[in-house]
Amino acid sequence: MSFDDVHRFLEGLLGEDLHAKRILSLAGATLGVIETASLAIGAIGQGLALARGRLTKHAIKQVDRMLSNPGIDLDVVRRR
User: 41-52 vs 56-67: helix axis angle to the nearest 10?
Assistant: First the structure.
């Protein structure tokens, strides 16, 4: 599964409810979870780095920022 596949799926699911940049962040984190089968922030970041060819440090930081973003309303995501 590629990043583009995950992004297209989430965009179709959440495109009306979330800003495009937030959907990109969710797609990256989702891909990280798929790669590592873990919900630990560090592991998600490592999976994202592995899948996207990025530095682990930056990917972990990206996941951490996404999870602390108040603009991503989990209640909206769960309703889908």
Answer: 130
Dump pLDDT digits (tens) for 3-44.
999 999 999 998 888 899 999 999 999 999 999 999 999 999
What is the C-alpha separation between 76 and 53, in angstroms, rounded? 30
Instruction: Give the up-direction half-sphere exposure of residue 76: CA atoms within 13 A in the CB hemisphere.
Output: 14
Find the angle CA(11)-CA(25)-CA(60) to the nearest 5 degrees: 155
Residue type, 51: A
Pairwise CA distance, residues 51 & 61, whole Å: 16
Q: Output the pTM of the full model.
A: 0.85
Distances (CA, A) of 70 to 53, 65, 74: 28, 10, 9
